[in-house]
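Per-record layout

source: Acaromyces ingoldii
name: Cupredoxin
length: 625
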Amino acid sequence: MRLPSPSFFLCTLGLLSATAWCKTVKHQWALTPQYNAPDGHYRMTFVVDGQSPGPTLAGDEGDNFEVEIMNELPVEMTIHWHGIFQRGSPEMDGVPGVNQWANPPNGNFTYKFSAPGQYGLHWYHAHVRGYLDDGVKGLIYIYPHANRTRPFSLISSDEGDIAAMMEAEKNPRSMALYDWRHVQEDEAIAMFDSSGRPTTCVDSVLINGKGRSFCPTADYLEEEAARRYDALPYFASHVDSRGCLIIPGSGSYNAEAISSPMGCTNSTADVDIVPTQGKWTMLNVANVGGEWTWTLSIDEHDLWVVAADGDYITPKKVQALPVSIGQRYTVVVPTDKAQGGDYFIRANSQGFAQVLAGVGVLRYDDDENAMVRRQDPVMAPPDGDALGDPWSDLSKASVRYNSSLINGAYQFDAQQDAPAFPAQSPPSKADMTFVFHANQTNTTVFQIGSQPLADVQELNLPVLFSQPGRGLEQDPSWLYRIPYGAVVDVIMQNAPNALFPAPAEPPHPIHLHGHKYWVLGSKEYETWQYANVQDALQSGNVNLNLNDPPSRDTFLLPTAGWLVLRFIADNPGAWLMHCHRMGVVFLEAPDRLDNIPDSYKTPPTTTPYAPRALIRGATLMGTSL
């Protein structure tokens, strides 16, 4: 029987010398197939408790969580709780073949975890293949403890402003951004695999599960592409009707294999309308998609970025905020326009291979004369209608359709603009260094290091369960052992490959499960030439930040460039570090993994464990983070 609402059970939590009350937040969610048309075009989707995005998992700092997942889908399923460290519960991380058996069709699995010391915005999603792109996803919000120091006084010293921001934090507005295709994930992978073309094109962008298909004219798209790709003339003159760059394929390139079955058709589906909260409005922004970085902006409004990946940062005022896959930001917006009304929320693709944008609306909720209504058509540029075309008059906007900045807008720099609040510094040196090269070997196979994670690994005994202090018969090339307490540096290079002509190697959002890391540095269009961080610092030629670097769990490996991360191995478990269909596993403190309950080590028996045949190249990575 499904629970109609969360059930709360009081518990006590020892907190230093004090006793604090906490509760257990319980949910029971069914995953089911459902026909939906979030952008006006119907297709089969996968939903969580009848909706996509699914319900927000909300609780207070210090709470425990229990979520029973009833898998009524025709495919295997696990749920990853992105950003939750799973300290003491690595078997709840939700990666098949790494720390969980996949939950088969008609199977149930209950996730039980806590998040001590964590707060803020996170998210959950499917972690089998790329089924998050079919709709299995939702937000997590942990309300920070009242005693936790906020950075709001760095935005304004006015007590009224600070009080308004504190009030807005009690009921933040959610903003889940993601790309959307008109075909299911399995079909998309099959098309990409047979076409010889990389997996780059989507049909629309959704905000909180709503959006519209926009089909600009060919002339408009080529003009916008030319503005973005002035250094890459081939790309600037080769865009299709959806704004996708026609990238040279590998082997026999078959463009027809990936053409949209309906072509590009304008739609008039609902757009998301976000009501203001008074003088200040708080937005919880997450990219829960599988393909592109989205640049968020709101016409005529500044964005104060106050948190990144769930933790407070020193506030930064911007007009444009790039949000890569898996990343989360909390922003406060001064919503003090005397005239009220509606203002376009813009989400523009920063993906190097597609020019695409979508809109929502920020509405001053006490204004009865607001012009935008849910069923009003928003026509594609440059053809306006009575509503007004979002891209025909950009005098009040911060970004063009192609995501380039206009009107003096400042764009958030994730490397420079996100020092932690309160300030923190990483350890001064590392005990271990791993150097990886991210590469793409064909249209659907990516890898880090010498080999990709095997397609069949999601069918195998999870690494976590084979490691109660014992060794595997032979460690696979993608598994790396780390002793407890080690300070670890990871250096990643975005390697050239045959599918993307240099210097167009796509960026990759790198997510580390079970941890946050310090981002010591990154740079696009440059090759890392050193054995480790110390060598780089001694050379004097590399700019690395060991004083106040950003602390993240997801960060972008830049185009044709490098990324340097540092973390402390203080969380025993088997943890994935990965991006699109490529990854490695860190087996951390295996000598401390003897307390995994035996009940989790046994394959599920509700139905025979026989995952359907995998399409070549569709590994357990999927597009999941």
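summary: The mean pLDDT is 84. The chain has three domains: 7-147, 150-421, 432-600.
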